[in-house]
């Protein structure tokens, strides 16, 4: 499972595609952080549909404690094709942002 930090790295590409490198580094980092949170939440919402009630409760406990890396490992053990889901959500988000910005 990809961590929120790894998603943030992927979101840096969006900064380049939108030609936002002129922004101060602090603003770029804030935008990247916000984008990565959105993508991470979209991934979580999508995979929750594939979990049973007990797993959803366990996941909620992990997320309530803000143990995001643990949540990633938990999901990678329980959701088939998690890597594919992650790639799809990142790509979809990138396309939405780029389309919206034009």
Task: Explain how this protein is built.
With 102 residues, the protein is an all-alpha fold. The protein has helices at 4-17, 25-48, 53-64, 68-78, 82-101. The protein has one domain. It contains five helices and no strands. Helix 1 runs parallel beside helix 5, helix 2 crosses helix 5 (82-101) and helix 3 (53-64) runs antiparallel to helix 4.
In a few lines, what is going on in this structure?
By secondary structure, the chain is mainly alpha-helical.
Distance, first to last CA: 32 Å
Low-confidence stretches: none
Instruction: Round the mean pLDDT to the nearest integer and report it.
Output: 86
What is the helix/strand order? HHHHH
Oligomer: single chain
Q: Could you describe the largest sheet, including whether it forms a barrel?
A: none
Query: How many domains would you count in the coordinates?
Result: 1
Helix content, binned percent: over 70%
How is the secondary structure organized here?
Elements (H helix, E strand, L loop, with lengths): L3 H14 L7 H24 L4 H12 L3 H11 L3 H20 L1
């Amino acid at each position: 499972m990809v961590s929120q930090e790894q998603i943030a790295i992927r979101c840096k590409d969006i900064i380049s595609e939108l030609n936002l490198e002129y922004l101060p580094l602090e603003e770029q980092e804030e935008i990247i952080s916000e984008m990565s949170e959105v993508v991470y939440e979209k991934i979580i919402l999508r995979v929750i549909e594939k979990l049973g009630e007990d797993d959803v409760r366990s996941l909620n406990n992990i997320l309530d404690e803000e143990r995001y890396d643990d949540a990633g490992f938990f999901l990678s053990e329980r959701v088939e094709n998690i890597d594919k889901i992650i790639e799809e959500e990142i790509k979809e988000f990138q396309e939405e942002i780029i389309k919206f910005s034009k």
